[in-house]
Design a protein that fits this description.
Layout lengths: L1 E10 L2 E10 L2 H28 L5 H4 L4 E9 L8 E2 L9
Length: about 90
């Protein structure tokens, strides 16, 4: 099983999800998702009502963090997707 790693960033006023990498390493998947959870995940959880009411914009998060990764989509094949395989978590941030 392969897990796709998506890069999430702000484009205009909307979130943009790009599938850019994949991995077969469950430790990398866990690390990517943990980093998402403690950054964007926390922001969304703490500000859900304010975001829904328009009191705060998602762009607030991206003022200090240009992008985050998420690794939640599992597939059998990545054929034709043009994704790069990640075998070292440090390769995501280099």
């Amino acid at each position: 099983m392969k897990t796709i790693i998506s890069k999430i960033e702000l484009e205009g006023k909307a979130l943009k999800y790009n599938d850019v990498y994949y991995t077969t390493d469950s430790t990398i998947v866990d690390d990517v998702n943990e980093q998402y959870d403690i950054t964007l995940g926390v922001f969304l959880g703490e500000n859900r009502t304010k975001l829904e009411n328009g009191e705060i914009l998602i762009s607030t998060f991206f003022e200090s963090t240009p992008f985050v990764y998420e690794a939640r989509t599992q597939v059998d094949t990545i054929s034709g997707l043009g994704l790069t395989k990640i075998i070292d978590i440090n390769d995501l941030y280099s």
